[in-house]
Specification:
With 396 residues, this protein is an alpha/beta fold. It folds into two domains: 4-55 and 302-395, Alpha-Beta Complex (Aspartate Aminotransferase, domain 1), CATH 3.90.1150; 57-300, Type I PLP-dependent aspartate aminotransferase-like (Major domain) (Aspartate Aminotransferase, domain 2), CATH 3.40.640. Helices cover 37% and strands 15% of the residues. The chain has 13 helices and 14 strands. A seven-stranded mixed beta sheet has the order 4-10-9-8-7-5-6, with helices on both faces. Strands 1-2-3-13 form a four-stranded mixed beta sheet. The chain has a three-stranded antiparallel beta sheet with strand order 11-12-14. Helix 4 (82-94) packs parallel to helix 10 (285-300) and helix 12 (341-355) crosses helix 13 (379-395). The longest helix has 17 residues, at 379-395. It is globular and about 60 Å long. The structure holds 4'-deoxy-4'-aminopyridoxal-5'-phosphate.
């Protein structure tokens, strides 16, 4: 008889020839458990999804309660569904005043698509500017924005009118011009390997957008909802976007994305033609209920306040280690630079085989590993994780 692992390889479509291949039976808090009882400390949190930890009882309860009331009823936008309304109201309460309308979708890629479409509709302009080494999704439109030629090349022709600039290079901002509908950018680059904006850079981008009338879209799919120690990464800088893109942690572990914009902008999607963006599952009521419960947990357990202290535990433990070349981070989105892919691969594999931790590298940085655990990780668990990492570095 074939094992579940063999069946996975045979029948579940693969994204690479080297999946981690761990079979997980259940997950709780910061740990994942295999059917044979091995325990793994989760240093990835599903790539910044599980900010409140796996199976938080309040999220589980919210899911159960909503599943008993209703799941899918009708395509997005027609019926008044209280979980959507409650989550939208909560989100706009956390955001600058002008960001008062939430368009719910199902994923980060879809949210990017919607945001860029909205910018085109609003400005009547053809072009989009994005950054090199940025990931914005895998659909044709979001892939066109992706900042790596290797990933884009195979799928040409892509969206016309997209150009790429180097993050943190203020000299290239003149490529944002009066033909630019929008600039899509991260307030902290995730898949580039955790690259922070240089002082003044985001302000300069904002200024240039204002000057030429282009909209500024911040992709906070990875950084939003507390990951960097603030609710949104843009709060670290006094720069606000015209459109904010969220996903990942937004659904508390269930699929959910959103783009948030001023109501008068969002109105463009309702007319001429109507149904300017439509989605069947966008804002799924169970995802919204889970997302609202996750926001309650972030708030009630003061998870944002602990983020910097927890990050510091990792830094204190790892900074002097001879294998560690550099640690880049903002809050609990951390990249630990090892300087070579071979070295990194040994460390990652060791975690899966014997080390008891699960980490990963970054799409555009394969020499650093990721520390982005659930924000609910305790300080003691941070210490424990740091010890697993040090053992991993020494034994791999
Ligand atoms: N933007 C960023 C910054 C992301 O990290 C990702 C996913 N890694 C996406 C967009 C796309 O999100 P999704 O996979 O939900 O489509």
């Amino acid at each position: 008889m074939l094992t579940t692992r063999q069946l996975f390889l045979n029948h579940v479509a693969q994204t690479s020839d080297a999946p981690l291949l761990l079979e997980i039976e259940r997950a709780q808090g910061v740990f994942m458990y295999t059917p044979d009882g091995r325990r793994y400390l989760d240093l990835i949190a599903g790539v910044s999804v599980s900010n409140v930890g796996h199976c938080h009882p309040r999220v589980v309860e919210a899911v159960q309660r909503q599943a008993e009331r209703y799941a899918h009823l009708m395509v997005y936008g027609e019926l008044v569904q209280s979980p959507q309304v409650a989550l939208a109201q909560r989100l706009v309460g956390l955001l600058p005043k002008h960001l008062d309308s939430v368009y719910f979708v199902s994923s980060g890629s879809e949210a990017i698509e919607g945001a860029v479409k909205l910018a085109k509709r609003h400005t009547h302009r053809p072009n989009v500017v994005a950054c090199r080494n940025a990931y914005h999704g895998s659909t044709q439109g979001s892939l066109s924005l992706l900042g790596g030629e290797e990933q884009r090349r195979a799928y040409r022709p892509l969206l016309p009118g997209v150009s790429h600039i180097d993050y943190n290079n203020a000299d290239q901002l003149d490529r944002i011009d009066r033909q630019t509908a929008c600039v899509v950018m991260e307030a902290l680059q995730g898949e580039a390997g955790v690259i922070a904006p240089a002082p003044g850079y985001l302000q300069a981008v904002r200024q240039r957008c204002n000057q030429v009338g282009a909209l500024l879209i911040f992709d906070e799919v990875q950084t939003g909802l507390g990951r960097t120690g603030r609710m949104f990464a843009f709060e670290h800088h006094s720069v606000v976007p015209d459109i904010l893109v969220l996903a990942k942690a937004l659904g508390g572990g269930l699929p959910l994305g959103a783009f948030v914009a001023p109501r008068e902008l969002m109105w463009a999607l309702t007319n001429n033609p109507a149904l300017g963006h439509i989605t069947t599952f966008g804002g799924h009521p169970i995802s919204c209920a889970a997302g609202l419960a996750a926001l309650d947990v972030l708030h009630d357990e003061n998870l944002l306040q602990g983020v910097d202290r927890k990050a510091q535990i990792f830094i204190n433990a790892l900074a002097g280690h001879p294998a560690v070349k550099q640690i880049r981070h903002q809050g609990l989105l951390m990249a630990v630079e090892l300087g070579s892919f071979d070295r990194l691969l040994r460390f990652i594999h060791h975690g899966v085989e014997r080390g008891g931790y699960m980490s990963d590298w970054f799409l555009f940085c394969d020499t650093a590993f990721r520390i982005s655990p659930p924000l609910s990780i305790t300080e003691q668990e941070c210490q424990q994780a740091a010890e697993l990492i040090i053992n991993g570095l020494e034994q791999s």
